[in-house]
Amino acid sequence: MSANRIWKELLTVERAVVEQVEIDQDTGVLVVRVRPVVRERNRCGICRRPGRGYDQGRGRRRWRCLDAGTMKVFLEAELPRMRCRAHGVVAAAVPWARHGAGHTRVFDQQAAWMAAECSKSAVAQLMRVSWRTVGAIVERFVADRDAGVDRLAGLRRIGIDEISYRKGQRYMTVVVDHHTRQVVWMADGHGRVVLEAFFDELGPRRSAKLTHICADGAQWIADTVAARAWQAVRAMDPFRAVAWGTEALDDERRAAWNRARRQAQDAATARALKDWIVATDPRLHRAYLLKEGLRTVFAIAREQDPRAAVDALGRWLLWAQRCRINTFVDLGRRIRRHREAIGNAIIERLSNGLIESTNTKTRLIIRRGFGFRTADAVIALVMLTLGGDRPTLPGRQHASA
Fold first, then answer.
1. Distance set, CA 365 to CA 61, 155, 233, 257 (Å)
2. 337-373 residue pLDDT tens
3. Which of 386, 390, 401 is nearest to 159 (CA)?
4. Which of 33, 214, 215, 275 has the fewest other C-beta atoms within 10 Å?
5. What is the longest distance spanned by two Cα atoms in the chain?
6. Rounded to an integer, what distance in angstroms lies between the CA atom of residue 88 and that of residue 48?
C-alpha cells in the first residue's frame, strides 16, 4: 500500500491526494498538504455544482483534523474561488470539509457525537476547541444532516409544550411528532405569538391535515389551536388533572394544619394535633377521597372502557360541585373548563408522555452542559439528540436496534 493511501486512511480523507506531510516547527503541529482530485475541483462550495475557475482566492489555508495521538493535525490546501451560475463567485468546495468550516467533516462528526453523549465542557477539553466552537459544530452538523429534509412534512398527531431553560422565566416552545417520536420544531420564548410562528411555517394546507394536538391546559395554546387548526382534536393529558387534584389536596391539608395550629397552645400540642387531623379530620378525609376518585376515573380509562371513564368524570364533577370544600369546588370548575380536551385524551388514548419525556431529556442536556447562555445553543443540542438520526463516531456503523 502506498504512503499516500496510508495517510488518506489515517486521516479519513477521500477524493484527495496527499502531497506532503511535515511537522510545523513553529507551532508543533502535523501539517498534511493535500489537493482535491481532478473531478472535485472548481465546484461551488454551496451547491457543489461544477463551474469555471475565477481566481486563487486567499491562497493556502488549513482545516483542523482529528488529532494523531497528542499532536494536532491540520490539512493544508489551496482554496481558489470559482464562478457558480446560482451563487456567483464563491470559494471552491473541498471534499474533506463543509463550506465555510475550519474543521474537517470527521472532526465535526466526532465532536457532534461527543456533544450528544457527554458534557459540552468535556467535548471542548478533549477536542481542544472552545465552547463556542462546539456549538458552531453542532449547528453545522444538524444543518447538514437536515439539508433537504422537511421536518414538518406529514404531521398528523403532534404534542406542544413549553420548557424553562434558564432562571428568570426564560422558556422555549417545543413541538414533537407523535408518529416519529422526534422533536420537529423548537423556538425561544412561549405564548401565542411564538406558537403562531410554528403554524406560519407549517402553512394553512398542512395545518388543515393535523388530526390530533396534545397539550396542557394553557389558554394560549388552546386559543392558537382553535384559530389555526380548528379541525384537529385537542387533547389535554389526564395526568395534568390528577396533578391538579393532588395540589388541591395539599392545599386542604395545609388549611387543616393551620386550623389546628391556631387552636393549639404550644408546639407539642400543635404536633399532636397535626398527627390527629391526618387520621381523623373528616373534611381532610373527604378531600383525600375526592383526589383518589379523580385518579380512579383515569384508571378506568386505562383498564376498562374509555367512554365509561368519561361518564365517571361527569359524576365526579357533580360530587366536587357539592363537596363544600373550596379547593375542590375550584378544581371542579377548572376541569370543567377543559372537560372536552380531557375527554378527547381519554377517548383517543393520548397523553403528554412523549413531550414530558422530551422536556426531561432537554433538562438533562442543560444540566450536562452546565447551563447555556442562549436558547440557540440548547435548541441545537436538542435537535442533534432528539430531532433525527444521532451522530456516530467516524468509521463506525449505526448501532443495531
1. 35, 26, 32, 40
2. 888 888 888 887 777 777 788 888 888 877 776 655 6
3. 386
4. 275
5. 94
6. 13
